[in-house]
Amino acid sequence: MSTFSVRSAIINGASAVPITVEIDISGGIPGITIVGMPDTAVLESRSRVRSALRSAGFDIPRVHATVNLAPSELRKVGTGLDLPIAVALLASTRQIGTNGLDGCLLVGELGLDGSVCTVRGSVAYAVLARSEDLDLVTSADTAVPGLAGIRTRGLTSISELRRGVSQVPVNEGRSDAAGRLDGARVSLDFVDVIDQEMAKRAMVVAATGGHGALLMGPPGAGKTMIARRLPSILPPLDEEGRMEAMLLHSVAGEDIERIALGERPFRSPHHSISLGGLLGGGRPVRPGELSLAHRGVLFLDELPEFAMNVLQSLRQPLEDHEVKIERVEGSYRFPCDFQLIAAANPCPCGHLGDIGHPCTCPSSAVERYQGRIGGPLMDRIDILVDVARPSSDRVIRGQTGMATEEMRRQVVEGRAFARERCLGRRRMHGSSPVDVNAFSPSAAESFESSARNLMLGGRAIDRVARVARTIADLAGHAEVMPEDVSESLIYRTRGTR
After folding, report:
1. Which of 45, 237, 323, 395 sits at 20 to 30 Å (Cα–Cα) from 312?
2. Count of structural domains, the chain
3. pLDDT over 50 at 371, yes or no
4. Per-residue pLDDT for 291 more than 90?
């Protein structure tokens, strides 16, 4: 047998792309030639494969092996092609049996001692193998939790293939990870946030309707504490959400264990992050923080401290729920349907409006500092909340308010009411926000008057209406009432006075 081929894959963007590894054995100077647009890591596999085979006790035939990675027009990146190249070489020289290889997708990096190591993107490879009805042959250390229909064959060392791949046990994946999140939640409870009941209420509204929020207040008021506890009141990820979030984290080389349990991602990048770090990029192209927050929360602390171009890059992803990256070799699309929560001081010194702590900033510095956020981005944030400094007496006494359990119950009930209300309803194109969100006549009249007085733009009107609808759902109102509109307008104007 002088030629042989096996199936493999590479990571391209947020998915795995099938690759065929073909090998041809011929005479000539002994060695391995790899063609098909390999990158440096793939070319280095020649040395890893030779050392791994020798350590595992296989013969290194004195032949010339030409390895073709098809399709040839696609650049091949990563170290996951080590295993299929080695298997193709062993099969073509009759050192292992070929029975069952045609039903396998092989991915793995080889250690110099013959060990099979895991590579990033395990979930993407598993999804591709399932769609192609193949067994995923990879490292035994590769974990693909919570995915039904995945068949994996785990290898500790390449020497285990001496008896043939069909003799390696198959592990069947089951979707049984969901529903175990409550016992594994991180112990961050809103009961620890003292004297911030208004901000807690805003978080309930934000969690119920999936609204973005900006918390503005002096240092030490509890803005970060509040934001970090938001995931504790969000419902667990459903099957589709877990799959999408695990896929993105897997191709980025991030841990997926807690996401597999249903926990929503919480990403909190430092304000020094680059544009590429936020949106994604690099070589190979990987998802950025926006996509890693998909189906979860993106928390931007000290919002005005972020670079202007980084902040303004949020505008389109917030609308489209997708990041588009254009490169010479092609286009990449990463989903990014996240909930934006931000925190900011009201001025450079942080004490503007803080009772008992006079602000020392000139008015021009305050305007310049708040202007760094930018009007277009502010227009895309649904809820603006002033977080005042908590009372020292209440903090010392340990007075508590709403706890996570109570807030989560409100969120669950509000979302359930919204689902029931929306059954059988369909949004008509051209309908006004008042009609779409089912305002009562008195609420519509109040809203129209307030929007005119506040000079709200089209996007602001739509967002105020959606927040009012969420507040009505929390109250169990079939129609949006005037009091729901009043609370929604409070969230729209707070932090700007």
Report:
1. 237
2. 3
3. yes
4. yes
Domain identity same for 277 and 225: yes
Total residues found in the chain within this entry: 497
Structure tokens at 423: 């059954």
Reported as a single tens digit per residue, the pLDDT across 154-200 is 999 999 999 889 889 888 766 555 445 554 455 689 999 988 999 99
The answer to whether 402 and 225 are in contact (CB under 8 A) is no
The rounded mean pLDDT for the chain is 90
Residue at token pair 């706890």: 403
Helix/strand/coil for 427: coil
Rounded (5°) CA angle 303-304-308: 105
- Residue with the bigger pLDDT between 274 and 393: it is 274
As a whole number of angstroms, the distance between CA 162 and CA 57 comes to 10
Task: Name the nearest CA neighbour of 208 among 396, 434, 487.
Answer: 487
Is residue 199 within 8 A of residue 159, CB to CB? The reply is no
User: What tokens appear for 213 in the block?
Assistant: 């929020």
Question: For the domain that residue 460 is a member of, what is the CATH number?
Answer: 1.10.8.60
Range of the domain at 63: 3-172
pLDDT tens sequence across 424-443: 565 555 568 888 888 999 99
Tell me, yes or no, whether 390 lies in a domain: yes
List pLDDT tens digits, range 265-279.
999 999 999 999 999
Domain boundary among 380, 410, 440: 410
Residue that is last in its domain, among 172, 205, 232: 172
- Domain CATH number, residue 60: 3.30.230.10
Cβ-in-10-Å burial (0-12, 13-18, 19+) of 467 comes to: buried
CA–CA separation, 378 and 275 (whole Å): 19
Written as one string, the DSSP assignment of 435-494 is HHTTB-HHHHHHHHHHHHHHT--HHHHHHHHHHHHHHHHHHT-SSB-HHHHHHHHHHHHT
User: Are residues 455 and 361 part of one domain?
Assistant: no
If phi > 0 it is left, if psi is from -120 to 50 it is alpha, else beta; for residue 420 that is alpha
- Span 30-73, pLDDT tens digits: 899 999 999 999 999 999 999 999 999 999 888 899 999 999 98
In a shared domain, residues 393 and 252: yes
Counting Cα atoms < 13 Å in the Cβ hemisphere of 106 gives 27
Residue 416: inside a domain: no
46 with 80, same domain: the answer is yes
